[in-house]
Specification:
4-stranded antiparallel sheet; BirA Bifunctional Protein, domain 2; 19 helices; globular; alpha+beta; binds glycine; 3 domains
Length: about 625
């Protein structure tokens, strides 16, 4: 079964059950300052899982491109085994306080056994065993008992309870790691059994049993995660019930492909194997002998291709830094195998994904050039690093840079090793961006312990610098952030009052510290203009304008003059926030009318102050303003 067939069957199945398809949100989230990538299908739905009204209803289905390379959802180091990928397509369905466990679990079983045609004999499930005040999930156990009994399978051998490390889901991981305000809940996972003969090692840490459904040996594969999203962490570290009980289900398309092809190695499925074969050609080596390296090349390059197609270029910060790390890891493995050309591999990758992601074909040249350029920069960086060490240690170069980098012409043992200080190794790490392994592959040895100490020091520093990042997405519904959202609407309208309605938002980013608003404008604002904008916003705050929202058909929203970007392909109904007028349903005579998910303050007087703190030009015809509220 192709990926596209699996997707179509899934969407049809859930659409027939009253679900509305929602779009694949951008891989780089818009208007979410706390996370670098979209890493789960639920991310764009967070405000609605938390209780906001969604204009399209209560049942959703989609396929979301996700990248897991940051925070608690960081799988970069896992790539290389039989199943981990950092980029994958997450097939999902959601219930916003509508149906719950007794619908979701039988539906998933039906989809998997009757639409993907997987043999029920090969399926196992896990459920939440309970933790502190959160009880054991007896309801799911009872539902699974019935499901397995109905197909003549003894449920006793199929249902396994686990604690929060395995059967609790939040974007931050286990309950202790969740920040205040983050959503989470127990989950029930479905596993596919590739068969006893596949047991590779016996060191499962679970239940003192040799191999178990959560064992890492590769025999069992988690193919579906049904999260019962019903809690929110409070300031005392306890869990409050959300206003509604939600279902948040996500399954990896690539894992469904593995199960339907009964192939325990994701890189040998019909999706990835042609790429592996291209790597074999380019390196003149065998997958069997160099499995890990070839998996790393494929896994890291496929994530890179999607990240680049989302508009990111390699750099030393944020998404660009992660992309650089992925590319350099892929290049390291490729060079280790003395590979010739990356281009045919990129081409093969785009070819394999083009059925589900045709955008990659349009962006092929951009993707290829970005990767090849980074390959060149990486080589340059390593030459500079070698120069730095040779100068510092007054070494006469015995090998050319290329030979050192590529290990060409000499066996590794003859390349010679130069001892350098941990401080210098750290300089190569922090200023040249080379990892310890990369430094060693240049033929330099250093004291690992001293280097580790330096790293620790550095990590503490960078942790302080990035405190606040990855705390959680729009779950940041702190009072100040909500005020910032409303102030941003007022700011946009004030700018349009002054400069005309061709001016509109091209981006925004709100944290509890400040709001940031990007708009189309070709020059800086003068001091007087800034003051004028501030005055208008402050006046609207003083006027105590009521804030309310309405769900309107898209044509109606346009008719009343609401602004914002609608996605007409997916949205029939939209949520519009009105600031001003009587605040009554149906009164559209407001000062600001904007398409938005919310939440917002109830009245502008909830905002106590507003001040523009900074402006900058962010591109041709693009300006940015920063402001603070209280
Ligand atoms: N939100 C469920 C998952 O990502 O597994």
């Amino acid at each position: 079964m192709t990926g596209k067939e699996i997707i179509t069957k899934f969407k049809t199945f859930f659409i027939e059950k009253g679900h509305v398809e929602i779009p694949n949100a951008p891989l780089i989230p818009e208007n979410d300052p706390t996370t670098l990538f979209t890493s789960s299908g639920m991310q764009p739905l967070i405000p609605y899982l938390a209780g906001e009204v969604h204009p399209q209803g209560k049942r959703f289905v989609n396929v979301q491109n996700v990248f897991r390379g940051q925070g608690a959802l960081d799988d970069i180091d896992e790539v290389g085994d039989n199943r981990h990928l950092t980029f994958f397509r997450m097939i999902g369905n959601w219930s916003l306080g509508d149906y719950f466990k007794k619908e979701q679990l039988p539906w998933m079983f039906e989809y998997i056994t009757q639409h993907l045609n997987l043999d029920p004999e090969k399926l196992y499930v896990s459920v939440f065993e309970g933790y502190k005040e959160i009880p054991k999930d007896e309801e799911s156990i009872n539902i699974w008992n019935e499901i397995f009994s109905n197909v003549g399978i003894d449920p006793k051998e199929r249902i396994f309870p686990y604690g929060p490390k395995k059967n609790w889901w939040s974007r931050a991981g286990v309950p202790e790691n969740m920040p205040v305000g983050e959503l989470g809940g127990p989950d029930s996972e479905i596993f596919y059994d590739f068969g006893a003969e596949l047991k590779i090692h016996e060191n499962s840490i679970y239940k003192d049993e040799k191999c178990h459904i959560n064992c890492d040996c590769g025999r069992y594969l988690e193919i579906s995660n049904n999260v019962f999203m019903q809690y929110k962490k409070n300031a005392n570290g306890e869990f409050d019930n959300l206003p509604q009980k939600n279902v948040d289900h996500g399954s990896g398309l690539e894992r469904f492909i593995m199960a339907t092809e009964n192939e325990p190695d994701v890189f040998k499925t019909s999706l990835f194997y042609p790429i592996i074969q291209t790597i074999e050609k380019q390196t003149e080596k065998n997958y069997l002998d160099f499995t890990r390296e070839m998996r790393m090349i494929t896994g890291h390059l496929s994530s890179s291709v999607f990240i680049i197609s989302a508009g990111v270029t390699p750099s030393n910060k944020e998404q660009g830094y992660i992309l650089r790390r992925l590319l350099r890891r892929a290049i390291d493995s490729f060079e280790k195998l003395k590979g010739r050309e990356l281009s045919p591999i990129i081409e093969s990758l785009v070819n394999q994904y083009k059925e589900t992601d045709p955008v990659l074909v349009d962006k092929f040249e951009e993707i290829k050039n970005t990767i090849l350029e980074e390959q060149g920069k990486y080589e340059h960086t390593r030459k500079e690093a070698i120069k730095f060490i040779q100068k510092k240690y007054s070494l006469t170069p015995t090998l050319s840079h290329r030979e050192r980098i590529k290990g060409e012409g000499v066996g590794d043992e003859l390349m010679g090793q130069t001892e350098i200080s941990a401080d210098d190794a750290f300089i190569l790490y922090s200023t040249h961006g080379l990892s310890p392994t990369q430094i060693k592959s240049l033929g330099y040895v250093f004291n690992d312990q001293e280097f580790a100490n330096k790293m620790k020091e550095h990590k503490t520093l960078s942790k302080t610098a990035s405190a606040g990042m990855f705390k959680g997405g729009l779950a940041d519904h702190s009072e100040l952030t909500v005020k910032g959202h409303t102030a941003t609407h007022l700011l946009q309208q004030a700018l349009r009052d002054l400069f005309g309605t061709q001016l509109h938002q091209i981006g925004s980013n709100i944290t509890s510290e400040r709001l940031r608003f990007d708009f189309n404008f070709d020059r800086k604002l003068t001091d007087e203009e800034i003051e004028k904008v501030e005055q208008i916003v402050r006046e609207k705050i003083k006027d105590s304008l009521p804030v309310h929202f309405e769900i309107l058909p898209i044509e109606e929203a346009k008719k009343v003059g609401a602004i914002g970007l609608f996605d007409e392909k997916y949205e029939k109904q939209v949520k519009i926030y009105f600031i001003g007028g009587s605040g009554k349903e149906g009164d559209h005579n407001a000062y600001s009318k904007e398409f938005c998910g919310g939440p917002h303050v109830n009245n502008t007087s909830d905002i106590k102050s507003f001040k523009i703190t900074r402006q900058e030009k962010i591109g041709v015809g693009k300006q940015r303003l920063y402001a603070v509220v209280q």
